[in-house]
Amino acid sequence: MGKRVLILDDDADFNNLLTDIFSQADYDVTSERDPEVAVDLLSQSEFDLVVTDQKMPGLSGEEFIREVKSSKPEIPIIMVSGYLDNDTIRRLIKDGVGGVFLKPLNVFSLLKRTAALIEERDAGRRRKSKSDEEQSTELEPEEYQHALPFGFTSLPCKSPLSQEFAKKLYSLRNFKTNLIIIAPTGSDISAYVEDLSGFSQPGEEAFVYADTRKLDNAGLLAQIEEGSRSGANRVTVVINHAERLSGSQKKAIFAASSKEEPFDQLAQPLRFIFHVPSDLDELYDNGEIDDDLYMFMGTSEVKAPALNEIREDIPLLAYSLLKAECEARGTAVPSLEPPARVFLRDFDWQGNAAELKRHVVAMADKDTSQLSRGDLQEIAAAQKTNSTGKGLDLRYELENFRADLCNAALLLCAKDVNLAASMLGLPAEVIVSNKQPEATTQK
């Protein structure tokens, strides 16, 4: 029998459509139009995933979700609705909704997200089945070494997914023009690039991390020239969060790649590494990357795993980061008790490496020779109190505010981009880059 899906939507036609979609994808579907009845069904039966509407008589979608989370918090939930504002979408995701989709529906994305959520839930159950005693019999973090036939330090590569990523990155080390690194926000892109640079012979390659504040023709040329002074045979420019590039920044990159003026005097070959936080096709479909950049970036890509996908690696990575932090301070490196390693493995690292690094700094601040599970729980509680949302920084919050402002202006101006840009005193490209996409999903 296939995985069981409960569909709740008071609109009979759309309910039937969703039922057909999931049934044809080999899911065992139960459909319901009444939220109160759906709550009773959940108490009486086991489901692998719930799909719900927002506006319904009786309970709203959000109220129904709270009922689900209170009784069976492990069940993944997807919201499908005709309209949701940005605040509601962010609130739903913060409350643990695994995917939010707006009508008209992207069926492929819906089914892809469904499969991912169920797999994440199943993987979590498999992890919990391992006892703390089994974990304690593993090698101490300082004794572990991966068995890859090449140097790789950004991830411990204990899990199959991190090993696959390392091998793919190594296979692409000689890319000619552009390489796309797909990695969720908070990933340590510089560590991946450091590993990539280690695959080259010393002095063969110069890597330049582009400062996007200086990414016009003159600024980019100066950064490339600075990198080329090492005498390397080739220069690689690293662009972080390529989906945020403005039109003028993209033009500078295109000109540099084509060796157009003022880049025509550069002697060394030039190539680019672009980081994006999610699948390139998805970014393109959502209007976050335009035709020119989509075509320019090409197809050579490697996908880096999120920490929550490689949980076997997390205690080892945490110890490696802790060791580096303590060595930089000139202090002794505390050991991790087995229950502490289990805590690190099972913690919800939504902020990825950036969040882990914040915890590691706090771990290094502890005046102890051995870190316990209680120590890490105390650190996690303090980090949650001091953070904004799920590891979101001020820049991200300001970008959300800018997106809301741009979309409000578009609504007031009947979606006239130029009029909205004039009203806000912003370039039209900023309005376009912040347009609300048709569907939003959590990764």
Describe this structure in words.
This protein is of the alpha/beta class. It has 3 domains: 4-128, Response regulator (Rossmann fold), CATH 3.40.50; 160-303, P-loop containing nucleotide triphosphate hydrolases (Rossmann fold); 394-441. Helix content is 48%, strand content 12%. The chain has helices spanning 12-24, 35-44, 61-71, 86-94, 107-128, 132-136, 160-171, 189-198, 217-228, 247-257, 280-285, 291-297, 314-329, 338-346, 352-365, 373-386, 394-412, 417-424, 428-433; strands at 4-8, 28-32, 49-52, 77-81, 99-102, 178-182, 205-209, 234-239, 270-276, 301-303, 335-336, 370-371, 440-441.
Supply the key terms:
Rossmann fold, 443 residues, alpha/beta, 12% strand, globular, single chain
In short, what is this structure?
By secondary structure, the protein is an alpha/beta fold.
Chain-wise SSE layout:
Elements: E1 4-8, H1 12-24, E2 28-32, H2 35-44, E3 49-52, H3 61-71, E4 77-81, H4 86-94, E5 99-102, H5 107-128, H6 132-136, H7 160-171, E6 178-182, H8 189-198, E7 205-209, H9 217-228, E8 234-239, H10 247-257, E9 270-276, H11 280-285, H12 291-297, E10 301-303, H13 314-329, E11 335-336, H14 338-346, H15 352-365, E12 370-371, H16 373-386, H17 394-412, H18 417-424, H19 428-433, E13 440-441
Parallel strand pairs: 1-2, 1-3, 3-4, 4-5, 6-9, 6-10, 7-8, 8-9, 11-12
Antiparallel strand pairs: 5-13
Helix pairs in contact: 2-3, 13-14, 13-15, 14-16, 15-16, 17-18
